[in-house]
Amino acid sequence: MIFDNNINIAMRYSLFLFCLLSSTNSLAKSPVWLLVDTYKKQIEVKEDGLTLHTFNSISLGRKGAGFKQSEGDNITPLGDYKIVTVINTGSRFRRFFGLNYPLRKDAEVAANLGRISFDDYLAIMRAHSTGEMPPSDTSIGGQIGIHGVGRGNPKVQGVFDWTHGCIALSNQQIDKLAGWVYLGMPVRIK
Q1: How far, in Å, CA of 143 to CA of 136, rounded?
Q2: Residue 90 and residue 148 in one domain
Q3: Do both 3 and 73 map to the same domain?
């Protein structure tokens, strides 16, 4: 009888934990993230496989998107990044959401090819381990982000690619995007 009672209590406790954990998992949402489609020239705000909003007519680096190899190559880098800096005022581009480019793998390739110094390599690695924006003064470039037109000519936005490697939106679009942006937000550029 005591044995049966202990099994009954254990089953109830297990069922309670199962229900609690199941409900907690179902309440948890996936974080909002950004998909930058360089072919369609749009940014999608995503959550749980759904598109919450689409920003069309984005501008990229003057030479399009691809494998960024050097500072000043005007290429928007492809890959999976995170937002590590948010400048809502004081940016000449109205708002600037800095990405963690160059990635660790970019620094490793560049160091192995002799394109960056060992000190630059260490600085990039240190920035990634602390969640900061990697240095922008290396030969593989940096300070890549998503920004508005700011004080520039709004008529060029979306008409042609004009940045040095960043992703640009109109000032109205960047203001709306700011409502979703947070530090650590995943950004996939494809």
Answers
A1: 5
A2: yes
A3: no
CB 31 within 8 A of CB 188: no
Residue 70: give the domain boundaries. 31-189
Question: Distance from first CA to last CA of the chain, Å, rounded?
Answer: 64
10-residue mean pLDDT series, the chain (190 residues): 52 49 50 97 95 97 91 94 87 91 94 94 94 90 93 86 96 96 96
CA 116 – CA 87 distance, rounded (Å): 28
Which residues does 167 contact at the CB level (< 8 Å), separation at least 6? 36, 43, 58, 59, 60, 76, 145, 146, 147, 189
d(CA 5, CA 47): 46
20: left (phi over 0), alpha (psi -120 to 50) or beta: alpha
Burial of 81 (0-12, 13-18, 19+ CB in 10 A): buried
